[in-house]
Task: structure prediction
Amino acid sequence: MGDVQSELLIEIKNKLDKVTDKSKEQQWEKQSIYKVPASVADLNKNAYKPQLVSFGPYHHGEAHLREMEDHKERALIYFLQRSKSSINLIIESLVEVSQQLKDSYHSLDSEWQNDTLRFLRMMIHDGCFVLEILHCASMTKFDDYASKDPIFSSHGNLYIMPLIRRDMLMLENQLPMLLLQKLAAIVIKQAQDGDYVKNLILKFCSGKSSSIEGKCLHVLDAYRKSLLLGNPHDPAKPLKLYHEQGEEIIGSALELHEAGIGFKKSRTNSLNDISFHRGNLSLPKMVVDDTFESIYLNMIAFERFHVDAGNEVTSFVFFIDNIIDDEKDVRLLHSKGIITNALGSDKAVAKLFNSLSKDITLDPNSSLEGVRRDVNQYCKQSWNEWRAALMHTYFNNPWAILSIAAAIFLFALTIVQTIYTVLQYKAQ
Result:
């Protein structure tokens, strides 16, 4: 019995030593690229797995992605020719940060941890390929490449680049920004500060030319921050977006419209630019296409797994999902110029937003809680409650509207006839 007790004490002591070990905490601080766990990925597997090209170690060597490896080799050659640098210079610049690059990946397999040469070879090929894509996206002509090049040509720009862009915005398919900055600095010395690479990323991913302040961890992080450019709402108020017992969530767009709330486009397209003022709910314009779901799911996943990322995209999706119940809500927002539907079906857009918000956890300090509260208070005003009930009961379809109009018309005729009869009686 004593031996069992001693072994148990030793086991618990060893576990406590591991808990108090600061190295694990330091490792967490360095990580920025994550594998999406099966519990999340199984809800929509295609949203998190690259379809055409791999970047980084998580999907390197998968059979359906190997075809792009030859194109990476060609891109490396053109990168070296344009930079007038040797491969030795690239290796030297990356060897000194090789461990930092490895530390960026959560749960990096031992085959990559223990083989730095293989890891750096992959980083060089993938990083140069990304920079060549970004470089070509910023050019009007593809002078460096052959006119028939399947990737770096007008044809490739039209058919292949959109697929690469989609894969480049997946959380499991990221390259550390440090890698891209180191490689870009070989071509342009000023690229070391990061702004050069961030501007190329924005132009490729969204066509924007505005700059992003602060550090970006990778392409997905840079794109996410570009969607948040603009002034957020007042963070000083005690806010919460989760719902306590008895607390009302915001109504659908149609219900809010029936209560007298108007919808209009915000002044900017920033996801932070949501406000409610004098009965008008302002929302940023959204283009919903076939890449929308994948991109937003990956941004939500990044906010979920990276501690310091924030929750702005998650809160935005949750808010929009609350006001979109079905295709009628989508149709209303489309009529106000808020949603541009590139999917074709309003029902598909409604289903998309309803699926995006599955199993998401919200930060209790979200700035959108203030908007929700103001909207609900407006709807609870007596006149607006009566108006909503009237609209829902009597004006919810064209036939009801015609019937009420006819009744009002007949009532008016009756009043006129009564007045005429009274006046005629007095005249006699």
The first strand starts at residue 262 and ends at 265. Confidence is low (pLDDT under 50) at residues 233-246. DSSP finds 21 helices and five strands in the chain. The CA atoms of residues 286 and 339 lie 5 Å apart.
